[in-house]
Amino acid sequence: MDAIQLLLLSMALFGVSAFFSLLLNGFHRAARMTSGLLGTAASIVGLVAAIRAATGSPSPLVVPALLPFGQFVLQMDGLSTLMVGMICLLGIAVSFYSISYLGQYSNRNLGVLCFFINLFIALMLLVVTIDNAFYFLIFWEMMTLASYFLVTFESEKKESVQAGFLYMLIAHAGGALIMLSFFIFFLATGSFDFATFRQADLTPVLRSLVFLLAFIGFGAKAGMVPLHVWMPSTYAAAPSNASALMASVMKKTAIYGILRVCVDFLGTPVLWWGLLVVLLGALSAVLGVFYALTERDLKRILAYSSIENVGIILLGIGTGMIGMATNQPAVTLLGFLAALYHALNHSFFKGLLFLCAGSVDYRLHTRNLNELGGLGKLMPWTGLSFLVGALAVSAIPPFNGFISEWFTYQAFFTASSGHDFIVRASMPLSAALLALAGTLAAMVAIKMYGAFAGPVRSEKVGQAIEVPGSMLSGMAFLAIGCIFLGLGAPLVTPYLAQVVTSTLGGSPQSVASGLWVYPLNYGQALLSPPLTAILLLGLLIVPVILVVIYRGYRAGRRIVNDPWACGYGYSSKMSITANNFNQPITVTFPGIYKLRTAIVERLVVVGTWSKQVRETITRIEPILENIVRQPTTRTVEYISQHIQVLQMGDIRVYCLYIVLTLVILLIAIIR
Amino acid sequence: MISASMILIGFLQALVILAVAPLFSGFSRVMRAKMHNRRGPSLLQNYRDLAKLMKRQEVIPENATWTFRAAPFVTVVSMLLVAAIIPIFTAQSPFSWVGDLILVVYLYALSRFFFSLSGLDTGSTFGGIGARRELLVSALVEPVILLVLFVMALLAGSTNLGTISTKVATGVIPFYTSVWLGMLAFAFASFVEMGKLPFDLAEAEQELQEGPLTEYSGRSLALMKWGIYMKQLLLVSLFLAVFLPFGSVNLISPGLPLLLSIPVAVVVFFLKVIAFYFIVAVLENAMARVRFLKASAITWTALGAAIMSFVFYLANV
Fold this sequence. Notes:
By secondary structure, chain A is mostly helical. Chain A contains 29 helices and seven strands. The longest helix of chain B is centred in the N-terminal third of the chain and has 32 residues, at 4-35.
C-alpha cells in the first residue's frame, strides 16, 4: 500500500475505534481497552504512512467533486507528512496511556469520551492533509467541536462549561478570520483548491490582508499572546489525555495553518510580516512564561508554558519570513528549521508533561502545587519522566528543547549579519528575550518539579503509589522521544531541512554531518549533542575519582529525619511552596503583574478566615486577562440577553416569525 | 577541527581549572582577611577543607531524592565541560567541536537547574529560598550575558568562542566603544553571577546558611563547593577569553614553540585572574550586602550597559 492508502486506513481505524467505543459505552473496561488499543494501532499505521511518505513522494488521492466546492484531495507533501508523523507519534503515546488513565471516569459516559478522542485525532490528520479550502474549513470546525466536547466532558463543573464557552468563542472568531482569508483567495482564483491558491494574483494590499486574517485566525488557535486567554482554563478543564493532545498537536495544526497560508500560498512575504510575527512571538514567549510562574495548578502552568513555546516557534517562523523577504536563503532555512524543530520538540515534551500531570491527578485528584510534594519517592518513574520533560522544556543541553533553541539563536545570528537595519536591530534583542524566557522557563520547570521534590505535605499525598503500566509506558515513550530528539539531532535536522526546502523555501544546504549540526557553515557555529552527552557522562569519572582518592565512600551516609530548622522541630509547612517560590519575580517585575491590593486589605480584616484569605491572596491575575476576557464575556452576555427577547418560548410568536419570513421571501421573489 | 592536541589541551585545561579553583577562592579569602586586618587562613586552606569534607560521613535528610545526591556531580561535570570549551590558555577553543558560546551559557543553566532543584528537594526552608534567589538572579543577569556575547559574536562573525577570542587577541576586533561597554556589562554580570558580597544572595552564609548548601555534608558538600569555586573561576575565564585574551597561545600561528608558550600562557592567565580576583575582593569588602529584592535596581544598569553596547554596535562605533 502506498502512503495515502495507509493514511486512509489509519483514519478508518480511528473511525472504527470511535464507533466501537461509542457502542460499548455501557461497558467501561471494554470501551477503554478498545479505544486505547485500536487508537494505538491506528496511530502506528499512520506513522508508517508518514515514514513511507517521507522516503518516497506519494501521489495525492483525488476524489472527483462530490460537492460543487472542488475536488476532495488528500496529499502528503513534506510539511503535511511531518505533521502526520507528529500527530501519530503523540497518538501512540496518548492512546496507550488512556487505557488505564480513563479508568477514573468509569462512572461516566466513557464511551463518548473515547469516541471524541479518536474522532479528534482522525480530524487532525484530515486537517493537515486536505488540499481544498472548503473541506479544510469543515474539518477545522469539526476538530474544534470534537475538542470542545473533550473540554466540557466534566460538564457538571462550572469551570469546564465556562472554559468550553470561552474556547468556542475564540476558536470561532479565529475560524471566521481564516474563512475570510480563504474567501479572498476564492474571489481571486475562483477555486477552493489549495493548488490554485499558490498561483493567486493578489494586489499587495489584499496579500497583506490575507496574511493578517490568516495569521490572527490561526494565531488565536495557537494561543499567541493577545489571544491566549482561553488556553489555561481550557487545558485545565479537559481530561489530561485530551489536554496533552490539544497542547502538543492541535496547537501545531494552527502552526501548520500559518505556514501553509502565510508562507506556502502567499509566497515571498513583505518584511513587516516577518517583523510582526517575531514581535508577537517574543511577546508570547516572555509573557507566557511570566504568567506561568504565578499559577499553582499544574495544568494551568503547562498551558502558559505552551504559550511561551508557541512564542518560540513564532520567533523561528518570523525569522524565516524575514529571510525570505530580504532574500537570504540561509536565514529562511534556519528560521523555519528552528520553528519546525521546536514544534516537534514541544509536542513531545509538552505531551509528556501533561501526561505526568495527568498521572498525578489520577492518583491524587489534585493538581494544586501547594498541596503536592515528595512524590518523587512515591511515584519514582513518573517523577523521572517529569524530570526529563522539565529539563527539555527548560532547554537544558543535551535535551531536545536546547537543540531547537540553539537553531533559533543561530537563525537570529545569521539574520543579524544582513544589511537591513530594522532586522539587525531586532534580532539580537529577540535573542536576549529568548534568553530571558529560557531562564524563567527553567524556574517554571523547577517550580513544577516541586510536586516531586521536598516533603510530603499531607497524609492524602503520602498514600500515592506509582501509576499502572499503560500510563507509564505512554510517558516513557515520550520521554525517550525527548532524549532521542536531543541526542539524535544530526539525524533529525537533515530531514527537517528537507521538509523546509521542499515546501517552504530556502536553498537546500547541509545542516548536519556525522555527529554535528551547524547553521549551514560550520565556521559560524558547531554543536554536537551526542558528544555533549558522552562528555557529560564520561567526565563523571573525575568527581568519582576524587571521591575514591579521598576514600569518601568509607564514611558512608546517614539518613536523618528532618532538614535543619535552627534547632526547632521541623514541619513540612516550613518548606517552600509553589506560592512563595515565585515571590521574588512578582516583586521584581511589578509592571507585569497587578497584585490585587484589595485582597491584601481583606487579609487585615478577616483574621479568622485565614484559609479563605490564603486562597484569595494567591490569586494574582494577569493584566491581559482582565482587559481582554472580562469585556468580551460581558459583551457577549449582554448581546445574548437582548437576543433572548426574540425567543419568548411562545409558539404563536414563532408562528408569526415563520409567516413573516414567508411573506418577506414571497415579496422578494415576486419582485 | 578535531585534533589530538586540541583534545589533550581541552582535558588538561579542565583538570587545571579543577585543580586551581580552590586556590583562587582561597586567595579571595586571604584578601578578605587582610582587608579586615586579620591574619586569615593559609592560601591552601580550601584544599584542606575539601579534603576533610571528603572523608566525613554524609548526612542526608529523609525527604531528599536522588536529584539531591546527583546535583554535586552534575555541577562538577558541567563545569568541567565548560572549562574544556572556553579558550583559556589558547586563543582557540579546545573543545570547539562540542559546542559554541550558546552551549556554554546553557551548561551554566544545567548546573543551576540541579543546584536549585537540590535546594527544593530537601524541603529545607533555607534551601528553597536560596533556590528561588539563584533563579531570580539568573533571570536578571542571563539576558545581559547573552546580549553582550551575541554582539561580540556578531563582530567576530561566529558564535565559536575560539574565533571571538582569536579575533580580539589579534586585533581584528579593535576596542570599539561597543566592546568597552560590553566588557563593562559583562564584568558586572559575571560579578553578580559569582555571588560575591553585594550580591551574595543565593548562598548567603550569614543570612541563609548558604542556601541550597545547607543540607549538604561530607563528600557531597565538598563536590558542591568545588563546583562553585570552578563556576566562579570559569566566569572570570569566560570574561578574559572574550575581552582580554592577550597572552594566550594562538595555535594557528604560534610565535614561540608550544612547549615554551603554553607555560607562559598559563602564567599570564593566572596573573590576569589574580588581578580580577583582587578587584573583586576590593569591591566585595568595600560594600554591604544589597537587599535581595533591591538587587534588580542595580542589575538594570548592567542591562542598560549591554543595550548601549548593542546600540553602539549598530551605529558602528
